[in-house]
Amino acid sequence: MTLTKGKILVVDDDPHIILSLQTLLEQHYTQIRTLKDARGIPGQMAEENFDVILLDMNFRPGETSGEEGMKWLHRIQEADASVSVIMITAYGGVNIAVEAIKIGAVDFVVKPWQNDKLLSTVSAAFRLSKSKRALDRHRSRERILGSMSLASRLRAAWGRRRRVATALRTLRSGSAASERTTSSGVSL
Asked: Which fold has domain 4-140?
C-alpha cells in the first residue's frame, strides 16, 4: 500500500485515543503528529503546515460542552483557513456538530468511530485542504499577474507622457523659432 504524502495532527487528551488514531492513520499518511494538550497547537502549526487536524471537543475530565474545542477551532481557522479540521468527541449532538461546521470544521466524528468511515472522512478533508491551498496559490498568482498588468499600464502611460512632453518641447521650440523668423523677417 502506498502512503499518501500528508501531515495529520491529532489533538486529544486521552492517550488511548491518540494511540488508536495514530496507529490507524500512519498506515495511510506519511506524517502523523499528536498532542495531548491543545495549548501546543499554535506551536505545532508554527512549525508545520498540516493538511488535516483531528481535534477533540473536550479536554478536561467531566467536560462535555465542547466549548474548549470550539475555542481551538476558532484559533486554528485564524492561523490557517486552508487546514481541514475534523472535530471528534464522545458526546455527539446535532447542535454542537452544526455549530462546529458553522465555525469551519469540515466534519464531526463521534467516538467510538468506525475505521472505514473515519478514513473516508480524513481522506475527504485531506483533498479539501489540498484544493483550498491550490486555489490560494492560483489567487496569489492572479494578484501578481494583475499587479504586473498594472505596472505595464503605468510604464505605458509614463512612456506616453514622455512622448507628449517631447512633442510639446519640439512644438514650443519650433514656434519660438518661427516667431523670431516672422517678426524680424530673418531666420535665425
From this structure: Rossmann fold (3.40.50)
Q: Which three cell numbers stand for residue 4?
A: 499518501
- Domains of the chain, by residue range, sit at 4-140
Where does the pLDDT of residue 15 fall: very low under 50, low under 70, confident under 90, or very high at 90 and above? Answer: very high
Task: Give the DSSP H/E element, type plus range, for residue 20.
Answer: helix 15-25
Q: What one-character DSSP code corresponds to residue 25?
A: H
Residues 85, 108 contacting (CB under 8 angstroms): no
Tell me how far apart the 2 most distant CA atoms of the chain are, in Å.
Answer: 108
**For all residues of the chain together, what is the average pLDDT?**
85
Encode pLDDT of 114-143 as tens digits.
999 999 999 999 999 999 988 888 887 777
Helix residue spans in 26-114 (DSSP H): 41-47, 67-79, 94-103
pTM over 0.70: yes
Q: How far apart are CA 88 and CA 85, in angstroms?
A: 10
Query: Which string of b and e fits 143-182 if b means at least 16 CB within 10 Å?
Result: eeeeeeeeeeeeeeeeeeeeeeeeeeeeeeeeeeeeeeee
CB 89 within 8 A of CB 66: yes
